[in-house]
Amino acid sequence: MRLGTPVTRLVCADDGTVVGVMLGSETLAASTVVVAAGTGSTALCASAGFVLPMVSSPSVMVRLQAPVGIVTGIVANDLFEARQSRDGMVLMPVDHDGESSMAALTRIGEAAQRLFVESFTGAAETRLVGVDIGWRPMLADGDPSVGYTGVPGLYVAVAHPGVTLASVIGDAVADEILTHETRAELALFEPR
Ligand SMILES: Cc1cc2nc3c(=O)[nH]c(=O)nc-3n(C[C@H](O)[C@H](O)[C@H](O)COP(=O)(O)OP(=O)(O)OC[C@H]3O[C@@H](n4cnc5c(N)ncnc54)[C@H](O)[C@@H]3O)c2cc1C
């Protein structure tokens, strides 16, 4: 386990098979390397000669501090999406329309805060605590890319709905690699 240590490149044998990863000057050997590096996946795959056609897409991520328990589950409707964690923090992703200044992003955050306060009972005390641009790992065709690539030893697991599907994808990937049998639900998303 090397948490927080960037992989600088994939390591290939003479026949092109991926046989490990390089962490700075250290090499870790592996029979299968799973690239699940979000928007960083394209660069890692390229180091083994595999083209992962990703078109990372920006979205504005608004963070609000609201009274605990106002939003249960995920609320998604025509006007907004919102999810609240146990400490009261609310995440609201908003479409990015080219805003590049902090002032423009703050205006988006303030509009999201107003919408939130108007939409939920007991939300009057809600504060805006942050506005950032988040990059979503999107493949060119919009679908997840999960499975063995054409490069032996190289497996990818990249998806925009990767939070909601994380446990399902993780379970299917582990099963596919350990059993060497393709999982039917992943067949559609085989990397091309
Ligand atoms: C604005 C926004 C809206 C989103 N909306 C949704 C949604 O509606 N539903 C949903 O399910 N998900 C959503 N997501 C989540 C997102 O689209 C992905 O699905 C999710 O982040 C994928 O998780 P992951 O762990 O595969 O990749 P990431 O969360 O991107 O994590 C990849 C990790 O790999 C690390 N990494 C990258 N390169 C290297 C390297 N060379 N060496 C070592 N580590 C590396 C990064 O530091 C990072 O920690 C959203 C994300 C954003 C930003």
TrEMBL record:
GO molecular function, one term: oxidoreductase activity
Gene name per UniProt: dadA_1
Gene3D superfamilies linked to this entry: D-Amino Acid Oxidase, subunit A, domain 2, FAD/NAD(P)-binding domain
E.C. no: 1.4.99.1
Listed SUPFAM superfamilies: FAD/NAD(P)-binding domain
Protein name: D-amino acid dehydrogenase small subunit
InterPro entries hit by this protein: FAD-dep_OxRdtase, FAD/NAD-bd_sf
Domain FAD dependent oxidoreductase as annotated: residue spans: 2-175
Domain of life per record: Bacteria
Keywords: Oxidoreductase
Coiled coil: none
Natural source organism: Microbacterium azadirachtae
Record lineage: Bacteria, Bacillati, Actinomycetota, Actinomycetes, Micrococcales
